[in-house]
């Protein structure tokens, strides 16, 4: 599992770099042919970790439920977020992975509700969910790169 946590942290560092280095107008712009923007993909990836690991394990979220409701599957960008919200998500990108790793080491994830994901990957355990998160983050990194390219055209 150490490798999974390492990969997740590396993905989140990349996401954080996008938040810090992408001009705000590009971060929130939705290019033609897309349903969301760079910001939404980053916030969605962060929120999905809470749903796939904590909720399916029957545990409380470690972040505000308002963020979860705003960026969960099935949502779309509705407004430009406040600077405070951007700051929170930026902080949570790393801290949620570190917290999950600490909780995993403590054995906090003792139960798990099996789930079939949208890409038809069945999750039977918290270890499956954590492994899936690396794939999920990769999907959204690819979407971010495609959006970034579309914004340059």
Q: How would you describe the oligomerization state of the chains in this entry?
A: single chain
The largest sheet is: 2 strands, antiparallel
Low-confidence stretches: none
Distance between the termini: 40 Å
User: How big a fraction of the residues is strand?
Assistant: under 5%
Radius of gyration: 15 Å
Instruction: Give the beta-strand count.
Output: 2
- Spatially, the strands of the biggest sheet line up as 1-2
Shape: globular
| SS content category | mainly alpha
* Secondary-structure element series: HHHHHEEH
Could you report the average pLDDT, rounded to the nearest whole number?
96
Count up the helices: 6
**Helical amount among residues, as a percent range?**
55-70%
Structural commentary:
This protein has 153 residues and is mainly α. It contains six helices and two strands; from the N terminus they run αααααββα. The chain has a two-stranded antiparallel ribbon with strand order 1-2. The chain is globular. The chain starts with a helix and ends with a helix. The mean pLDDT is 96.
Key structural traits:
single chain; 153 residues; mainly alpha; two-stranded antiparallel sheet; 2 strands; 3% strand; globular
């Amino acid at each position: 599992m150490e490798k999974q946590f390492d990969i997740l942290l590396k993905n989140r560092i990349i996401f954080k770099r996008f938040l810090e280095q992408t001009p705000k107008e590009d971060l929130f712009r939705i290019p033609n042919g897309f349903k969301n923007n760079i910001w939404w993909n980053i916030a969605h990836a962060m929120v999905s970790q809470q749903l796939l690991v904590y909720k399916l394990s029957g545990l409380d979220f470690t972040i505000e439920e308002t963020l979860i409701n705003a960026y969960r599957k099935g949502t779309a960008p509705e407004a430009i977020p406040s600077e405070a919200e951007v700051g929170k998500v930026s902080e949570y990108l790393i801290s949620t992975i570190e917290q999950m790793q600490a909780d995993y080491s403590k054995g906090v994830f003792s139960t798990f509700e099996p789930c079939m994901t949208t890409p038809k990957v069945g999750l039977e355990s918290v270890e499956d969910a954590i492994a899936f998160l690396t794939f999920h983050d990769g999907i959204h990194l690819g979407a971010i790169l495609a959006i970034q390219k579309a914004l340059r055209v």
